[in-house]
Design goal:
There is one protein chain. By secondary structure, the protein is mainly α. The protein has a domain of 81 residues. Helices cover 65% and strands 0% of the residues. It contains seven helices and no strands. α5 packs across α6. The longest helix is centred in the middle third of the chain and has 33 residues. It comes from Chionoecetes opilio (Atlantic snow crab). This is General transcription factor II-I repeat domain-containing protein 2.
Length: 133
């Protein structure tokens, strides 16, 4: 599954050892420029691939490389979110399976993954608690 993406990963993890002639055309010129830049090489030796991107990002000299790095990083971030959602769904389904409909599962997952903090006091303030007959 990841074999076709291997060159992109290599480009992300070791841009100064990558054969830039094999890179996509928009990245080639940036790659050749990066390999000739001794200051960038020095920064790369002391940084992780992600922090290296942050060092390069403000200069805007390598926009295609930065976009490439963002795509690689986003792959794993979205995978993490999907895994977390799947774990919550699996836990919820096993715990209350007998009472669970598709709509209930959808509502539970929406609540468990949202960061909304309801203001219960203001919601209750507008309600009549003891309705008269």
């Amino acid at each position: 599954m990841f074999r076709p993406l291997a060159p992109g990963f290599k480009l992300f993890t070791s841009p100064f050892d990558f054969p830039w002639t094999k890179a996509p055309a928009p990245l080639q010129m940036e790659g050749f420029g990066a390999q000739c830049n001794d200051e960038l090489k020095a920064k790369y030796r002391t940084a992780s691939p992600l922090s290296f991107r942050d060092l390069v990002l403000p200069s805007n000299k390598f926009p295609n490389y930065i976009e490439h790095v963002k795509r690689i990083v986003a792959m794993f971030g979205s995978t993490y979110c999907c895994e977390q959602l799947f774990k919550k769904m699996k836990y919820t389904k096993s715990r209350i399976r007998s009472q669970l409909s598709d709509r209930h599962l959808n509502d539970i997952l929406l609540l468990s993954t949202s960061s909304i903090d309801p203001d219960i006091e203001s919601l209750l303030h507008g309600k009549q608690h003891q309705p008269s007959h």
